[in-house]
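Appendix B.2, paired examples.
Example (i):
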Amino acid sequence: MEKTLPLRFHFSGDKGGKRSLHWHEHMELLFFLSGSTKVVCNGQTLVGNKGDLVIIDCNQLHSTEDGCFFCIRVAPSFFEDLSFNKIMFNTHIKDDKTAKFCFEAIAREYTDKRDGYEIEIKSLVYHLFAHLLRNHRMESLSEYEILLQKNKASKIRQILEYISHNYNTNITTRSLADVFFLSEPYFCQLFKSQTNQSPMNYINKYRSEKAALLLKNTQHSITEISTSVGFENPNYFTRIFKKYTGQTPTTYRKQNP
């Protein structure tokens, strides 16, 4: 984050934009510079092409594949005199000349860092958001519908945090639903609507990512690693790990010494 601005900037090259499902307090704006990049946001999958703008709300679940884009993260404190709690923007904006002008100008200022660039960037961000409010605000959603969407996202974040602390235990969709006082069918429907995947798919992928780190960074046996990430059966662990990485644990360890 810049010392004088509650903003974060990030240029993502063709191999630097892959991020698994996550969230943060900042509003995130992705302006795509080339190619096509898959983004999952609020349970929807979209493809960002050159010149597209994708807006990710504060604390909204999202993930990105490798791609080329310029990212601006705007902290809630940036607009001290405004609140976006009851506002949602269109997620995917195409062929908007004003957005393109603002992002290109912000990128130049951030790269060149000439005298007064912080002031110029701040003015450009205000100009961009004024344009978004006037032209890309979700007018079709009522305040109740916006609140409902944000409450669902908040519930899923709680569930993902619980999984991150308990992935190495015998958790199931039934046990997760019980923890959060939901019926199992509603729990599964809610989870998929917000993450675009089933709960067990997310859990097994998460376990496989943790196992990959252990295979690279420890000398523990595959059986020990299998147990430590929540798989009781090493053979089942091998099948699941290969499903998400394309390699068996043994091959992955050999290729990632």
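Example (ii):
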Amino acid sequence: MTTTEAELAELIVGAKAPDLTLQTPDGSSLQLSTVWSKKPVAIFFLGPLDGAFASEYATLWRDADEHMREAGGEIAAICGATPEEAEAFRERWDLVYPLFCTTGEGYAAFSVSGSQPGSFVIDDDGTVRYAHRNSLELDNPPTWDLIEAVSELTGQTVERPEVVPIGQDDTASDAMDGKEHDAPTPTDDVRLNFTCAKCGHSDYEVNDMSTTGGMMSRMVNPQHRRFSAVTCRRCSYTELYKTSSSALRNVFDVLIGA
């Protein structure tokens, strides 16, 4: 189904949102208007539920649910799967907000698709107050963009959590590892079985890092995520591991088969 320019024009900020008929995980139906009737709602469409990008964005919103409620809004997700598949996905990723189902026509009504989903904020009168349509499936906006859009509607201020660089947050380090969060170096006892995938060199350095905002979050949206970066000293090729640096030895042992 091709969306015309006229249909796109109807869905800009300030327009009335389409009142879709949705299916709940138990198979019953409801109107989208009942979701936004009590308070502003952040609605996002997901790509295929078996894809990595759907679970990534869904869990980001799971982690942001508390802040959305502080802003005076709610979250609702929409997918193109069956109610049974939606419920299994919701349980697998421990989602705290509802996940509704719609057809391709429902996606088209918001000028999005499974390969190019989108995110919206709708006021309690059904007016679109924020709209982002992905140019690619992974082009999701930062969750804080929608939280702040809701906050502007309700007048409720939400303070962003302070992002503390890894290595400067002793409490977080101890919680992760139960000990000091020291990055291993080539001279440490926790020497990694590292071989650079680009140049074959085995000399490396490890740095802890966190990501928020900017181009990185626009691409994969890893807001406030923590990583260990292993960098080849010869060619600077870098690999990111979503684990503490003190746990890298175990990761490399598994990868190498030691």
